[in-house]
């Protein structure tokens, strides 16, 4: 951060021109000195406060990583988005593959016939598993292979899982539902292992492709602006998230293929698309900025935390909390706390690393509220598909509607990136990450309120009322839906998409910008871990994830989102004032260190 020194008593003649300053302000014969912001290219705090901030151009290698994420997400969502019908619903009449043979316009594809609760439990486990495994991917990347090689290796692991998934849906497997279910669970474990390891490394790898610094630039209009890495990273993650959701639109074709041709074909198509992942990785091998393995920052961070916690731990929780909040909490884990002859051998880090762990943990407390946000998101991942199954489909597969979520995100991201956010910045409105995340919680709550009202209305309109509208059948075994057009259910999907732009994308941006250079995998894995915690919490609600309680379930999630969002803003609003300082964690000099390098030497560097 820049330091400003105003009101110097030195005259112009006596002023000392110190290195690292622009020395440009003179008032009433007095010299006013303002230093450049650490790590910038000639940008002062005054520039940062008064000039408009713009993003930089994204490098070619970043777009290559985006294409990898696009193909991987197409494959992942192109399979998981049709899991609900595949597990929950039985084979349609006369079908051996899950395809609808009779009354295709309103028929629902299915295969294993295990019911809503088993379907929910397996899908929730899948979500939990795929967000636990990023820890493994982060450790392997940090200690052994680096991010590029880790992504490459686990892309082949993922491919094996998809091949097993295709086999689980063959007619001979579906004829034995328990065998098919076993193969499905095996494929989920293997795919989750690969997808999670890829996820931990793709997110930081894409932002690492941009290496620009804070600098000034004169536009063609003559306006002088600040080219901001923070704004650029925000834009990178907007487009990264667009790639995720554009890829997930692959589930559109999967829904139709499953209904018309069966599940083995529906799973085969994304498997073939996944082959593009290693191909694109190889094509861009010489273009990527690759971070080599430098030892496990995650494991070393845990050692620092454990060492600091040991003397503060007590069976009395209040004593432990007071100890953790003490000013000297981290001292015992710092090398400077010991004489050289007394320093424990397990300390392999320096004081600055301990400070990075401390400050990163404080920033990462932001993510602890996210499990409640992801509870709202989880409802569009299957339960709302079950709601849609009780409505008039008119040729639209019930699990197709959920693709409105990624479609809305893909459509709205350019709108936010090119219109909304620049409009706010131009008018000096600082829509900080904390404010954006808070807005995400409130919009997610609106989505759940919409879903609760819709489900209550569906209970009244369905011939089966509040029992199980999705399983309401005529005497001939065909669907007997409520006289409600299935597209009415699109509201929650679109609203959740908007909430993701505010909250989920910002969490990726926050995880990257608040992490010190050598701790990005740790922070990113911790951010993604919140989805796993949400899945574990959701799993405990399996008993109430049934159609007769959907309205109450959705309504309770709406209230939870609003309450948690309010608490989130109250707790973290102070971080808005420290935004620039938090972005500099682990990137500049240590606290108290004065850079006395001459300007000429810095320029040479």
Automatic annotation (TrEMBL):
Keywords on record: Membrane, Transmembrane, Transmembrane helix, Transport
Region (Disordered): 1-24
Bilayer-crossing regions: 128-145, 152-174, 180-198, 262-284, 363-380, 400-424, 436-459, 493-512, 524-544, 550-572
Subcellular location: Membrane
Membrane topology qualifier: Multi-pass membrane protein
Tagged with keyword Nucleus: no
Molecular function terms from GO: dipeptide transmembrane transporter activity
PROSITE patterns per UniProt: PTR2_1 (PS01022)
UniProt record similarity statement: Belongs to the major facilitator superfamily. Proton-dependent oligopeptide transporter (POT/PTR) (TC 2.A.17) family.
Name by which UniProt lists this protein: Major facilitator superfamily (MFS) profile domain-containing protein
